[in-house]
Design goal:
Blueprint (H helix, E strand, L loop, with lengths): L6 H6 L7 H6 L5 E4 L23 H6 L5 H9 L6 E6 L2 E6 L1 H9 L4 E6 L5 H4 L2
Parallel strand pairs: 2-4
Antiparallel strand pairs: 1-4, 2-3
Length: about 130
């Protein structure tokens, strides 16, 4: 199987690899954000179908929770007490961590979600 990132991921995604643990360790304030600012993530295949590679969108999972039971269950088990970690990248907010939590919040009908805005200056601190 071709493990090349889809063009859309290259277009919208980060151009560096990061450690979630290093992101979590940052001491940053938590604030509320409208989920609508982050909903664009739902159309991007950030997840994998069984045996796939970056070929499943959150919207596909929400539209067919039984067909993608494992991903839907993982989403609904995610813990909304933790904020999302986001960075302003290519003229919009992009998730570093928290897509399952974002999708769960949307599924539950929430309008806002807790986020931590990671400054670009922190990139050297979070790189793998």
């Amino acid at each position: 199987m071709d493990k090349k990132l889809p063009k859309i991921i290259e277009e919208v995604g980060f151009d560096f690899h990061w450690s979630e643990e290093k992101v979590w360790a940052l001491d940053l304030p938590v604030e509320e954000m409208d989920i609508s600012e982050l909903e664009w993530h739902f159309d991007i295949p950030f997840w994998d179908k069984p045996g796939g590679f970056y070929d499943l969108t959150p919207n596909e999972v929400l539209a067919n929770p039984k067909g993608y039971k494992e991903e839907f269950d993982r989403t609904m088990k995610s813990d909304l007490s933790y904020p999302l970690d986001i960075m302003f990248w290519k003229n919009r907010w992009l998730l570093l961590d928290g897509l399952h939590r974002l999708v769960k919040a949307k599924q539950l009908g929430m309008k806002t979600i807790k986020v931590r805005k990671i400054p670009k200056e922190a990139i050297p601190l979070i790189r793998k």
